[in-house]
Amino acid sequence: YTAAILPNYELKFDGSANNRIEPSAAFVVPSNNNKVVHGVLYTLSADDFAKVGNTEGVPFGYRWKRCRVYPYVGNGDNAG
Known about the structure:
Shape: globular
Order of helices and strands: EEEEHE
Mean pLDDT: 82
Structural class: alpha+beta
Strand order of the largest sheet: 4-1-5
Helix content: 10-25%
Strand content: 25-35%
Oligomer: single chain
Number of strands: 5
């Protein structure tokens, strides 16, 4: 695994009381404000990838979306 950034996206928390399934769910959504999301990349087998989708509710609760991410470089103070 490695730390990475996802540019032009931001992390949003839906604290809405209308969301009864997960009232404090977090979502990564597109951003036009030059924001980035920091995270960790994992290498998964095809079977493990399918398991993640099943436990997360794909395609009913979520959809897969292909994105370009950039691993951290340098000493950890700078990414991208």
